[in-house]
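Hello,

Our lab assistant flagged a job as stuck in the queue for most of the afternoon. It eventually completed. Since we weren't sure the result was trustworthy after the delay, we are filing this so someone can double-check. Below is the sequence as submitted and the structure that was eventually returned. Let us know if re-running is recommended.
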Amino acid sequence: MLQVNFIRNNKERVIEGLKKRNFSAEDLRLVDDVLQLDDTRRTTQVELDTILAERNTLSKEIGDLMKQGKRAEAEQQKERVTLLKEQATVFENRMSAAQSQLETILYRIPNIPHTSVPFGKTPEENEVYKAWEKPLPDLGANALPHWELSAKYTVFDLELGTKLTGAGFPVYRGKGAKLQRALISFFLDAATNAGYEEIQPPLMVNEDSARGTGQLPDKEAQMYYVERDNLYLIPTAEVPLTNIYRDVIVEEKDFPIKLTGYTPCFRREAGSYGAHVRGLNRVHQFDKVEIVQIQHPNKSYDALMEMLNHVAGLLDKLELPYRILRLCGGDMGFASALTFDFEVYSAAQQRWLEVSSVSNFETFQTNRLKLRYRDADKKTQLAHTLNGSALALARIVAALLENHQTLEGIVIPAALRPYTGFDILS
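-- returned structure --
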């Protein structure tokens, strides 16, 4: 959530940023609405403070008058105090209404894109930040897509998942299950070796946690909701990991705070149909290892580049062709200031599949979370938060099956063999 003072002091920058997110002229009026409500809140606060100060002064005077035996004068002052109490209630209600309206509007305004974010409305307008410079693999006409390879080598079973739960909930079997476990361990070891603390968080979060990282009120339709307990199944480990520091003041010396965690992720993916979502291309439950950083504002973009290099290193070791996209304003997440997507090339499908998003949220999440740090002058400031998938397994498994298929089976990349215990999946 943007800070009101930031909007007030950077109105033109905010408007330009929202235009980059393709806000209409009508939507841009939200900026003026914020400032008008804040003016109302400020004016009301001044008037309320004046009333409360007078009431406190009169209350003290009443006590003095009673001690002096001036009961009649005291009673007159009491009448005035009663009137002031009624006025105070009116102004408090006005304050509460203005504050509530202000928060409602602020929750509708997304983060302001970084200056490097390109204009655009659709994924097709994303910018290729780093292209794959080697020839893309060509497996020939006999190459099989991962869902056919899975049927041949018993990696996962979507029909069984439909029987047990519903469409989009795969069951991994035999060496397929071991491949999943190997990838999770490989990604976690890489993260902990890079200085991230491993966390095993809950798989459900409360409303405050979902609101703190920006899932609410923006993404309700994509989340599974447990109505009886008012809890949400997590769409990513980013939510519980970042919320560990909700309502916390950290010391400047504590930076960087680096967290990693493996969790299943649950996403409704409403409205997703068609050939492009066959197999593991889009599922409702998938495993993912997440990396999160809480950083000093002056160092968050260096941290973002560090995270990009970390994800790129994983894909290099998995011997998968990949490219990095800088998302345009129309394709970025609500809370992000700058997002890079990693896509791996699916050799059998001959298309690119997103396997990671790495984002800097600057202070957008920390303002909601009230996550601050104490600087050298002992003043509290909002920290920056970042997160990235390192990596999402479903599409990684799809890419591994397709890109490493041979007539004998699926060749396991050398870096992964110590974790799988086998060199080929056959």
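-- support follow-up --
The delay was a queue issue, not a problem with the job. The result is valid. Residues 25-67 form the longest helix (43 residues). The radius of gyration is 27 Å.
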